[in-house]
Amino acid sequence: MTNPLETPALTAAAAEATAAAEAAAEGLTTPPLNALLLPLPDAARGASAVAVAAVRGDEHIIVCRGAAEEDTRFETGSLTKTFTALLLAELAARGEVRYDDPLDRYLPAGARRVPGPPVTLLHLATHTAGLPRLPPGLLARSARTGWFRNPYAAFTTDDLLAALPRTRLHHRPGTHVRYSNYGVGLLGLALARAAGGEPDDYPALLGERVLEPLGLTDTDCDPTRPQVVGHWHGRPRPPWLVPGLPGAGALRSSARDLLRCLTALLAPEAAAPPSLRVALTEVQRPRLALRRSGRRLCLVWNLRVRPGGPLLHHSGGTRGCTAFAGFLPGSRTGLVALADTAPAPTGAFVQAAYGTLCGLGST
After folding, report:
1. Distance CA 331, CA 334 (A)
2. Is this model's pTM higher than 0.85 or not?
3. Taking the domains of the chain in order of start, what are their residue ranges?
4. Which neighbouring-strand residues pair with 54?
């Protein structure tokens, strides 16, 4: 589950798409979406299945390469976090939670809290809680059970709750940004409890409140449904398992479904029920600014201020797949990119996707 706070640089594929968009803009013509998307799959080196999709105004297109089709399911890794943010905003719109509610309020009876100042749901959704990237005990457990294959597979909800009293905050909540899978995993647990369920009910709650209303039939946290076989250094990987932190990285989805979600984010007024309509708007609202870079954080989504308006983006990776999604509300443009190979050290595919989105937005 990758860190999306690093802004990608342009790769050759992304630069080609951006150049085409700029040339078209100078010539007062708009290149077709497929011309801008076609170079992108080449950036997913070693992938045997790639699916990219885009929306620009009323135009929609899905381009598939290799074994992928528009409904092929890929592991999305940390892109799951954007759905957890949407679930938080949906519960807040119903009045079931408040953003400044303390995490402790939604822990199971008898669970011990994180020592130190209170951590709120908003802290968790903006990576400002001060929590470490991973919960205490996960590294030791995964070292025994397969860090290079399925590092989260043996870490359960009980392990997550047992980690709370052993956690040491890196800073006072609300003062610094520190990306944390641990934090958003806890947010998923808290939302399940806030809705009256058990700590393990996050997948079912997400389906009921977000996935089903948006019509995302290919999307869920179920590792047993058909999906691509992921690859790491050219070797096939088993399905990604995240039993204790599903809200941080367990979601599977398709290019078709993720494009449908981006379309809803670009036109929240068309969504139903009303609580989801509010949530689609709320996740896009900036919550804080990063001092040095000028970047901003919404609920999980990263926001870049650009001449044509804000660009929101997030990426994700597992041991076998890479995922990217981003959109520009001002130009009603969005892009999804999925590949059946783990993120490269250079982040080439995510960088290319980011650059291609910028190119789409400039047209």
Report:
1. 9
2. yes
3. 12-362
4. 61, 335
Contact in structure between 135 and 195 (CB atoms under 8 Å): no
SS (H, E, C) 141-164: HHHHHCCCCCCCCCCCHHHHHHHH
- pLDDT confidence of 261, banded at 50, 70, 90? very high
Count of other CB atoms within 10 angstroms of residue 201: 18
Q: Which residues contact 32 (CB under 8 A, 6 or more apart)?
A: none
Q: What is the mean pLDDT of residues 163-186?
A: 96
Tell me the C-alpha to C-alpha distance, in Å, between residue 13 and each of 147, 322, 354: 32, 17, 11
In sequence order, what DSSP letters do the residues of 216-255 get, joined into one string? Answer: -TT-BS-TTS--PPPEETTEE-PPP--SS-HHHH--EE-H
SS3 category, 358: helix
Q: What is the largest CA-CA distance in the chain?
A: 66
For residue 347, the model assigns a pLDDT of 92
Phi/psi class of residue 196: alpha, beta or left (left: φ > 0; alpha: ψ in -120 to 50)?
Answer: left
Mean pLDDT of 37-58: 95
Token code pair at residue 92: 């807040």
Kindly calculate the radius of gyration of the chain based on its CA atoms and give it in whole angstroms.
19
| 12-362 placed in CATH 3.90.1150.10 | no
Q: 317-356 burial string, b = 16+ CB within 10 Å, else e?
A: bbbbbbbbbbbbbebbbbbbbbbbbbbbeebbbbbbbbbb
Indicate if the pLDDT at residue 6 is higher than 50: no
- Compute the distance between CA of residue 247 and CA of residue 83 in angstroms, rounded to an integer: 8
Quick one: average pLDDT of 133-142?
90
The kind and range of the H/E element at 317 are strand 309-317
**Are 113 and 281 in contact, with CB atoms under 8 Å apart?**
no
Residue with token string 């996707």: 353
DSSP states of 93-145: HTTS--TT-BGGGGSPTTPPPPSSSPPBHHHHHTT-S---SS-TTHHHHHHHH
